[in-house]
Fold this sequence. Notes:
Elements: H1 3-10, H2 25-28, H3 34-44, H4 57-60, H5 80-100
Amino acid sequence: ATAAELDDESLREAETFFLTSTGRREFFDPVQNRGFLEKISSETGGRYYPLSEVEKLPEEIVFTESRSSVVQVLDLWDMPFNFLILLLFACTEWILRKRQGAI
Length: 103
């Protein structure tokens, strides 16, 4: 076969169709499936918290270091937006005190 024949055979058009839709299952029965949530949490090494125990959640959240997490501590002047907001607050307070005669 010549190069021209190979090119004609390898360049063919194909067409396909598929139907997609959003998952509407949660709209038909919008209640909490506690059994399912407990099963997922036990299989993934997590924990299910009912509303009666939700106050324990902040104490039990622990940072675990992994390859995808990076701890980065920045000084205030390394975050210009936060520094400018803080500076704006300080200047606004000074201006208000000056107008009221407190300075």
